[in-house]
Amino acid sequence: MYSSSSVSRIILIYVSAIQLLLINSKLSLNVTNEYLNHTCLVSQGKYKLGSEYDKLFKNIMKMFYKNSIRGYDLFGDSTFTAILQCRGDSYGPKCRDCFVTALAALRRRCPWYKGKIIWYDQCLLSMDSKYSVGQIDYDNNFCMSNAKKVVEDGVTFIQVWNILIGDLTKLATTGDNYTLYSVGEKRYKGDMIYGMVQCAVDLSRKACQECVLYNRFHFQVCVNDMRGARVVGRSCTFRLEFYPFIAKQVRNI
Q1: Helix (H, G, I), strand (E, B) or coil at 85
Q2: Which superfamily, per CATH, for 141-241?
Q3: Cα–Cα distance for residue pair 145/241, rounded to 1 Å
Q4: Can you give the pTM of this predicted structure?
Q5: Can you say how many angstroms the Cα of residue 186 is from the centroid of all Cα atoms in its chain?
Q6: What's the confidence (pLDDT) of residue 82?
Q7: Would you call 169 exposed, middle or buried from its count of C-beta atoms within 10 A (0-12, 13-18, 19+)?
Q8: What's the pLDDT score for residue 2?
Q9: Which residues, 6+ apart, have CB-to-CB distance to 217 below 8 Å?
């Protein structure tokens, strides 16, 4: 027989385990903000403290901080283009926090470079010393994939993920979806594949479609047969996983 104190300890341990499981579940969905990558656009040169470029940069970053609460911001003229794009479910304080983190990291990783880009799980921050609003960036893209492969019927899996990304791209670029963002899921055998597509706010719907299509083709070796992958770029990104990575990922495609 268990004593009352032993039963209480067992219940406490059980409750603590459940709480820990729930916390980890939330973290795996959308609370974490992992650093992904960055690039310093060395060919665009550097600027000096107190220069006109420096003054413009500081003013635009102040504006971005103020507007980051809505999830994105954009500025472009002949000498400077800047884009803040938070993930579609990351707005309000989460977007602002990601912006602050990204800006500090860019200053540290690419000091005084005019052109620079940094990617976090929840946001992208990009700066360019020329006018590039609305233009697809075909150069600054990369792929991250799971080490594990799909072991059964890889051909069917490739078909399923291509259909899912195609459907999500259509969903993100039609109707009243001004955010160029969509999430969804599709069944593959006994599993669910969860997906996300998002384009930068400066792109047109047609350019968004072209960007995703280009990256689907260019990085197919990285994505095919993998139990999870993401293709990330300055202009567009998409992601596939065998687990839900966004809290409200419930749409069936």
Answers
A1: strand
A2: Gnk2 domain, C-X8-C-X2-C motif (3.30.430.20)
A3: 10
A4: 0.84
A5: 20
A6: 98
A7: buried
A8: 43
A9: none
